[in-house]
Amino acid sequence: MKPRWNLVVTLGIILHIVALASAKAVIDQKAEESQNSNVVQQQLAVGASAQKRIGYDYPAPADPVSFGEPVGAAPLIEELHQPQPLPVIDDIHEHHVHEEHPDPGFWKKKLIWKEGWKKIWKPGKKQIWKPDWKKIWKPIWVPTQIPVWKDIQVPAWKQIWKPWWNEIQVPAWKEIQVPDWKKIWKPIWVPIKVPAWKDIQVPAWKQIWKPVWKEIQVPDWKEIQVPAWKQYWYPAWIKVGVPGEKYLGKDHDGWEYTSHDLWKKKLVWKSGWKKIWKTEQKQIWKTDKKLEWKAAWKQIWKPGKKQIWVEDKKLAWKEAWKQVWRTEKKQIWVPQKKLEWKAAWVQTWKPSKKLIWVPDKKLEWKEAWKQIWVPDWKEIWVPAWKQIWKPVWISEWFPSPDPHEHHHHEIESHGWDRKDSAASASATDGSTKVLFKRSETSAAQPKAVEAAPGATANITPAVVKTDTTENKSEFRFPVA
Questions:
Q1: Domain of life, per the record (predicted)?
Q2: Inter-residue long-range contacts of 431-439, CB under 8 Å, 24+ positions, other chains counted
Q3: Which of 327, 306, 285, 299 is nearest to 203 (CA)?
Q4: pTM (two decimals)
Q5: Helix (H) or strand (E) holding 155
Q6: Do 461 and 396 contact (CB within 8 A), yes or no?
Q7: Contact, 259 vs 199, CB < 8 A?
Q8: Rounded distance, CA 40 to CA 52, Å?
Q9: Angle at Cα 179 formed by Cα 176 and Cα 181, nearest 5°?
């Protein structure tokens, strides 16, 4: 950032200097314009009898010309050429000498080269700022997770013992009549079977355990309202005998009066009982389920040998039985309840710790690109001023020659071919003379000439009029 600030400060100083120079150039230009206008006014005052010279004035920049900035051109005031007076032509005579007439004069055309300034464009360089990218590192927060232990309550089981009534069967004896058999023997043909073995699949039983829910009765407590008696005390008035005599006083006759066996009231507290209801716990039984394992048998098949019998006959004594009845005792089972303690499990909660992940953030550095502005140079076209010379046709005003002077003057040459030399030669030879006269309606200029009689031959033609309509030159310099 420090080099950039230095560059900004330098540009600010340069712009300040350029602004001061421009202000000074404007002040100098205004002073020069005012001075040139004063010179023109003085020249017009001196040559009041001549007309105003009008030409093609081109603005020129102040010296020195700065190609970096376009400079406004001030009006160019060029010096008027002062040619020598033309020779007097004696071919034209005035018959009325004693009469004073205004001198009409005549105009002549002349080609002059006039300085001008042409605006051109030349290549230059301009400082610009172009974007560029700079690698930077910026901090960012990256979301992460950290492990934390959280206190939780986990279920646990506690073994307790509960009393319950177990229904059992107790033995008892009962007298019954049972049949009895008396053995006898009978001769009979008894079909017999001869044993033999056969391979077969015999069923077998495998013991398995199945979980079953068994309904049990567990004790519980229920709040009930039971009657009770509460002793309370209440006040009561009773009569109590007062022993002895009590003097009551005398009457007007002097008799004395006494009282015997008097009673008085006494406040005593008597006890009473009222019926109230109080809350107590009553043991009840509620149905619950208990998971038990029950033995079961599953049938399977295994290979084995089966004894078969082949039919046969054999004479034998057959045993027979004859039924008789006799009294005996039979053991039976009667139901009975037995109080036992049964193990049970109660669910409790114990503190524990659980590993959890909580969100967190971590500071990291991330690569990024930042746009910056770097100085650079750009090729541009800047305006400049080139000095050129252009041909201009101007008209010069000449007063009429004095007709009384019959001598001829040689035409002086000022370095260019004047058109009026041929005209003067033709006039001396007696040929037709071409005069550029203005109309007689404008009498302001001849009157100005009359203001200085006798000095007509010595007046230098300083007033020039530019022909702006007919004599414009089409000449152009080649563009550099």
A1: Eukaryota
A2: 433/89, 433/91, 433/92, 435/106, 436/106, 436/107, 436/108, 436/109, 436/395, 437/104, 437/105, 437/106, 437/107, 438/104, 438/105, 438/107
A3: 299
A4: 0.21
A5: strand 106-242
A6: yes
A7: no
A8: 10
A9: 150
pLDDT along the chain (480 residues), means of 10: 69 81 64 58 48 40 42 37 41 46 77 93 93 93 93 92 92 89 86 86 90 92 93 92 82 85 88 92 91 91 87 85 88 91 92 93 93 93 93 87 59 47 42 42 38 38 42 49
Evaluate whether 287 touches 217 at the Cβ level (below 8 Å): yes
CA 297, 299, 300, 301 torsion-angle sign: positive
- In 3D, which of 308, 335, 313, 368 has the Cα closest to residue 139? 368
CB of 403 within 8 A of CB of 92?
yes
Q: What is the DSSP string of 302-351?
A: EEEEEEEEEEEEEEEEEEEEEEEEEEEEEEEEEEEEEEEEEEEEEEEEEE
Minimal CA–CA distance to 365: which of 119, 138, 191, 182?
138
Residues 6+ apart with CB under 8 A from 23: none
Here the tokens at position 379 are 């090729």
Distance CA 284, CA 218 (A): 8
